[in-house]
């Protein structure tokens, strides 16, 4: 197996153990040493290292630091680090996300400068698969699809409630954990975490999900064959009403005629865009069927998006309709009164200055009508608006969403407030950006 599959850069976390090995490969006035690491690791864990750069010269230096992985060395991360004359600089959060290997293995990891190198061997412990009943599609079935097919990979919420967080990989490359309002809504309403991937070209692919937990990691692996003679994705043959425009304040029945050439149909997930809500999930069967839903209006310019999914979890997404027009009061929220409260649920603080701060928040609508709110992310002691979005929340529901801000590169660690504001409701937290010269 390609060694690059074992370690992939991203993430957070830290620990301390003795080094397995360390060496200096060249001479010069800049030396590097690995001082902390959290090895050994289970497959899927985050490798976190701390290094020290020592400048023995009489002049300040800008040091090019590289993170190198594998017996066939590959640079997987690099940064420029300033080190003052005669000083030693600590560099933290040198991180990699490990691949969910099935068998124990070791891989060399190096931190390099132009004049020196520190190296160690990282042990990655193999992990086993979790129960197949929690993985969709069935990983034992033939997953052969045509090029250009989108496939939805899912893990049951019961598995994640028992275990922990998930990290996804395609052919050994870490592709991040799905984030944003749609994955959060899907997890809440459908009870599954999903990862969607489009297989554009012919070949055989491995998709892995590593579930990270305090009591031991587990994983799921799907093998997907992409070939011209593979199964085609589902198709939408007709949509009713035929018009693409829907009234925001009228009850309408929507229908889709759907079909599949060889694979059994399974379900249709009905979304309303912009408001980021799932309206319903319709069961379908056979190789042709009709899915329908009754809606009571919607938000102005929102679209109805339908995911037609077959038993292999191949799916087709269509957007046949959009809401146009307003109610008699000139509103696009269906009239009535809404009462909303905004709450910050989480952030990815701390971040290094210059990186993106992610703020996850939610609006709770305790009123009797759907509401559409403009939401702002404001940062700093001298308040600055850095992100905004429009969120629609049905009566009696709560809507999750994300706001982001690219932090400023700062020399020293910086604590600053972030606020999420909507109407008369505000929530605030203090976050940390690490300085680049600390």
Written description of the protein model:
The strands form seven sheets. Strands 10, 12, 15, 19, 21, 22, 24 and 25 form an eight-stranded mixed β-sheet that branches. Strands 3-9-8-5-6 form a five-stranded mixed β-sheet, with no helix packed on it. The protein has helices at residues 157-162, 181-190, and strands spanning 7-8, 30-37, 41-42, 46-55, 61-69, 74-83, 88-98, 105-112, 117-125, 135-136, 144-145, 149-156, 165-170, 173-174, 192-199, 203-212, 218-226, 235-240, 245-247, 251-259, 265-272, 277-283, 288-296, 303-310, 314-324, 340-347, 351-352, 356-365, 371-379, 384-393, 398-406, 414-422, 425-434. Residues 1-27 and 326-337 have low confidence and may be disordered. It has four domains: 3-125, Immunoglobulins (Immunoglobulin-like, Sandwich); 132-226, Sandwich (Immunoglobulin-like); 235-324, Immunoglobulins (Immunoglobulin-like, Sandwich), CATH 2.60.40; 340-434, Immunoglobulin-like, CATH 2.60.40.10. The longest helix is centred in the middle third of the chain and has 10 residues, at 181-190. A hairpin with a 4-residue loop joins strand 5 and strand 6. It is 4% helix and 56% strand. 35% of the residues are buried. The protein is mainly beta and 438 residues long. The two termini are 39 Å apart.
List keywords for this structure.
438 residues, mainly beta, Immunoglobulin-like, 4 domains, five-stranded mixed sheet, globular, disordered N terminus
Distance between the termini: 39 Å
Could you describe the largest sheet, including whether it forms a barrel?
Answer: 8 strands, mixed
CATH architecture of the largest domain: Sandwich
> Helicity range of the residues?
under 10%
Record field, number of beta strands: 33
Given the helix and strand composition, which structural class is it?
A: mainly beta
User: What is the level 1 CATH name of the largest domain?
Assistant: Mainly Beta
What is the third-level CATH name, the topology of the largest domain?
Immunoglobulin-like
The low-confidence parts are 1-27, 326-337
Estimate the mean pLDDT confidence. Answer: 85
Task: Characterize the overall form.
Answer: globular
Spell out the CATH superfamily of the largest domain: Immunoglobulins
**Beta-strand percentage?**
over 45%
How many H/I helical runs? Answer: 2
Q: Count up the domains.
A: 4
């Amino acid at each position: 197996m390609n060694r690059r599959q074992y370690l992939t850069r991203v993430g957070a976390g830290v620990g301390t153990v003795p080094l397995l090995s360390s060496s200096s490969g060249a001479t010069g006035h800049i030396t590097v040493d690995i001082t902390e690491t959290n090895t050994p690791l289970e497959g899927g864990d985050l490798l976190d290292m701390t290094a020290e750069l020592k400048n023995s010269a009489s002049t300040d230096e800008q040091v090019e630091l590289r993170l190198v992985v594998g017996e066939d060395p590959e640079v997987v991360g690099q940064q420029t680090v300033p080190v003052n004359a005669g000083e030693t600089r600590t560099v933290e959060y040198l991180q990699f996300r490990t691949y969910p290997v099935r068998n124990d293995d070791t891989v060399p990891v190096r931190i390099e400068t132009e004049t020196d190198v520190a190296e160690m061997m990282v042990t990655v412990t193999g992990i086993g698969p979790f129960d197949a009943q929690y993985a969709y599609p069935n990983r034992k079935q033939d997953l052969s699809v045509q090029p250009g097919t989108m496939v939805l990979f899912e893990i049951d919420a019961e598995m994640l409630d028992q275990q922990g967080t998930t990290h996804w990989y395609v052919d050994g490359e870490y592709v991040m954990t799905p984030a944003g309002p749609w994955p959060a809504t899907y997890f809440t309403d459908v009870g599954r975490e999903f990862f969607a991937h489009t297989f554009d070209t012919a070949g055989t692919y491995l998709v892995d999900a590593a579930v990270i937990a305090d009591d031991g990691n587990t994983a799921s692996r799907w093998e997907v064959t992409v070939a011209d003679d593979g199964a085609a994705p589902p198709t939408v043959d007709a949509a009713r009403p035929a018009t693409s425009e829907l009234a925001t304040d009228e009850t309408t029945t929507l229908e889709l005629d759907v079909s599949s050439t060889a694979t059994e149909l399974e379900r249709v997930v009905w979304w309303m865009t912009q408001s980021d809500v799932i309206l319903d999930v319709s069961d379908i069967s056979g190789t042709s069927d009709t899915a329908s839903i009754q809606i009571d209006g919607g938000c102005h310019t929102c679209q109805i998006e339908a995911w037609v999914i077959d038993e292999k979890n191949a799916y087709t997404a269509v957007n046949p309709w959009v809401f146009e027009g307003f109610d008699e009061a000139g509103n696009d929220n269906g009239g009535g009164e809404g009462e909303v409260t905004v709450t910050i649920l989480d952030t990815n603080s701390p971040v290094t200055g210059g990186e993106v701060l992610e703020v996850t928040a939610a609006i709770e609508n305790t009123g009797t009508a759907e509401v559409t709110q403009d939401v702002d992310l404001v940062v700093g002691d001298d308040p600055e608006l850095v992100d905004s979005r429009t969120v629609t929340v049905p009566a009696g529901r709560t809507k999750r969403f994300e706001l982001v801000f690219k932090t400023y590169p700062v020399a020293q660690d910086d604590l600053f407030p972030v606020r999420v504001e909507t109407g008369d409701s505000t929530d605030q937290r203090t976050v940390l950006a690490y300085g680049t010269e600390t």
